[in-house]
Amino acid sequence: MRSQLMLFSLASAALLAAPSCAMDSPGALEQAGFSAGCSGADAVCLVGGIDAPIALGATLPVHIDLHVPGSTSPMTPLVPVDSSVVGAEGYALTGKEEGVCAVLLCSPAGQVLDFIHVWVERPAHLGFRRLHEDGSDLGRVERDFEMFVGDEAYLLIEPRAGLQPLLGYFPDATWSLEGQAVALVDEGVGHRRRLMARTAGVSLLRASAASLEACVEIEVLP
Questions:
Q1: Which end of the chain is more exposed for a tag (fewer CB within 10 A), N or C?
Q2: Distance (Å, rounded) from C-alpha 117 to C-alpha 68?
Q3: Do 5 and 38 meet the contact criterion of CB atoms below 8 Å apart?
Q4: Is the distance from CB of 25 to CB of 48 less than 8 angstroms?
């Protein structure tokens, strides 16, 4: 019985010590977890660790999970050590120059609570990711695709360096559509776009950012 109680106590301690978000990238001091978050556009957002470079010119919302026991923390600013590489505004980081930079998580009084290193890389090309209506990720768009009249699809621009997806969105990205088969809708929130299949035919979707362009052909079936 004593050995069982000891095992139970150890298991309980391990659970209490575990971080609250398993997908966080832990800071160097293990006082906080840093995650690539959402821009606030989606009802559901898959938050993942900062496990890839930020695209040059892109902005990355950051979700922070403090592991410090106690009450809810006040606003904790992000402070880049080299602001020429990474810019910070509130809970968002912007890739300004290729390289690596430490980003400090500070209390309002200026105390360093934790820090993490982030890389900035220039994207080589752009692609699209397809989202569910609720904002959850359905995966990379790998080729031209088809829709039926009345269907809807949600797309997001994905910067890439080779086969590696990069993090962040481009505030100045432009979208355009050729053809009448599909309507392109900017819902005014976040950075995704909604496609509405209106009539049988073919439309070509283009998205431009960082002097690059992504395009995909969409065929609407009757």
A1: N
A2: 20
A3: no
A4: no
State the chain's mean pLDDT as an integer.
81
- Residues facing 63 on adjacent strands: 35
Distance CA 180, CA 74 (A): 50
215 vs 197: CA distance, rounded Å: 17
pTM of the predicted model as reported, rounded to 2 decimal places: 0.75
For the chain, the straight-line distance linking the first and the last C-alpha, in angstroms and rounded, comes to 70
Q: Which two tokens stand for residue 9?
A: 């106590």
Query: Are 101 and 85 within 8 A, CB to CB?
Result: yes
Cα 14 to Cα 8: distance, rounded to the nearest angstrom:
10
Question: How many Å apart are CA 37 and CA 23, to the nearest integer?
Answer: 11
Question: Within the chain, how many helices (H) and strands (E) appear?
Answer: 1, 20
Q: What is the pLDDT of residue 91?
A: 85
Query: Residue length, the chain?
Result: 222
From CA 151, how far away is CA 173, in angstroms rounded?
25
Contact yes or no for 78/48 (Cβ under 8 A):
no
Q: Give residue-wise pLDDT tens across range 166-219.
A: 999 999 999 999 999 999 999 887 789 999 999 999 999 999 999 999 999 999
pLDDT in tens, 33-48: 665 765 544 433 444 6
Residue 68 confidence (pLDDT) above 60 = yes
Q: Which residues lie closer than 8 Å to 96 by C-beta, 6 or more apart?
A: 56, 57, 83, 84, 85, 86, 87, 120
Query: What's the DSSP call for residue 34?
Result: E
